[in-house]
Amino acid sequence: MKSAKEKSPENPVGSATKVVLVDSIEELSAFEQPWNELIPLVSGVGPVQTYAWFHAYLTFKKEPAQKWVCAFSFHQNQLTGVLPLIYLKRIAIPLFQVQIFSPPFDFFHTLRFDAIFRPGFEHHYELIMKEMKRKLKVWPIVNVRYIPDFSISCQVAQKSNGSLMGFKRQVSSEDYIVMPAQMETFVAGLDGKFKRELNRRLRRLKEENDVHYMLNPKDLSHREAFADFVDLENSGWKGEENSSIRKRPGDWDLFNQATFKFREAGWMEWNFLKAGESAVAGHLVVNMNGVVYLWKIGYNEKYSTFSPGNQLLYSYIEKVIAEKSGVEINFMNQRSWFKDWNIQNRPLFSLILFPRDFLVSWIFMRILKFTHRKN
Questions:
Q1: List of E strands, the chain
Q2: 79, β-bridge pairs
């Protein structure tokens, strides 16, 4: 597949605007810088919507035979949108082919994977779908999973006069904590019993250990931080259940490469609580555009009676508020064990997006509604 398309009479994309489809790692690498430059302009963007994550996913997690394509839209040679997709199922229907696509999805760590578009160019989503239909000679369906309502796919599907339509349903939710202007305000909102118990356990921990916090230390190398966190996360139940970064096939390489790239871009933070020389709790954090994604948490279960995870979270919240480095801490999933932290809940949806071709889309929408009612 060519990495660029010349303007031609049958091409619906004009000279000022173009769509580029790539399907090889070599071609994809040319878009790293403009993709990174687009990120700060898009509100609500998360770590899995980055070049770093998509590239690492393709390299270490994609099945060898699985096809993929990444669509880029441009206006006057400026990147306006990115839609990374994996080929799922193809359905042969008389007169045309239906191709189902999806952003890379893994329930453990690719929630919220959606397209991104420069503000004011959200309509380029429709141009991308038209170009995919023309160039790939398929009727494209995009299945986007576990995204918030403000995500671009949801917004495009809700346009009554657009060329795309969608079927949306709530499938889960994510927990988050809003960061107030002052730490005193946050503390005042916590339950009194919870605060007293947290302080009591911290005193006990300090009585028995030399306790110190490492909150995004600048002198800690990526290699050291990643190794310490992976060992910590693998030491408890996640390691026993084979759900840790170390135990899940491909995850070590995936997270090692992606977090290294996040660090280069200025988004990566590592937090640790240490008792003596031992790390007893750790955070893998990605801070993007004022949203603090607390993606992975690990703790040493030998210290569980001291609540090391809660101790580290309290200190990190204090830091975020003091430095005004985030408007919310987002857990990217449901975290029932943080119920005492005044968490709020945001619905997540799955969306099936497809062209608004009158007869075909009418039939397809009714099939989806019937299937959903049946389930």
A1: 17-22, 68-75, 78-93, 96-102, 116-117, 139-147, 164-178, 211-215, 268-275, 278-288, 291-299, 328-330, 344-355
A2: 74
In a domain, 70, yes or no: yes
Same-domain check for residues 26 and 160: yes
* Domain assignment of residue 306, given as a range: 180-326
Spatial CB neighbours of 253, under 8 Å, sequence gap ≥ 6: 56, 59, 60
3-state SS class at 79 = strand
**Residue 198: both structure tokens together:** 């947290």
What secondary structure letter does DSSP report for 277?
T
Domain count, the chain: 2
**To which residue do tokens 């408890």 refer?**
236
Question: Range with the lowest mean pLDDT among 88-102, 219-233, 238-252, 324-338?
Answer: 88-102
Q: Are residues 223 and 230 in contact, defined by beta-carbon separation less than 8 angstroms? A: no
Q: What gap in Å lies between CA 290 and CA 159, rounded to an integer?
A: 28
Residue indicated by tokens 């990605």:
286
**CATH code for the domain in which residue 220 is found:** 3.40.630.30
Q: How far is CA 329 from CA 233, 243, 245, 334, 344, in A?
A: 20, 23, 22, 13, 10
Cα separation of 287 and 232, whole Å?
21
Check whether residue 166 and residue 194 sit in a common domain: no
In 3D, which of 221, 271, 248 has the Cα closest to residue 110? Answer: 248
Q: What is the residue type of 122?
A: E
pLDDT in tens, 22-40: 999 999 999 999 999 999 9
**Three-class DSSP category at 334:** coil
How crowded is the C-beta side of 283, counted as CA atoms within 13 Å?
Answer: 31
Q: Give the contacts of 152 (CB within 8 A, at least 6 positions apart).
A: 114, 115, 116, 117, 122, 125
Is 0.85 topped by the overall pTM?
Answer: yes
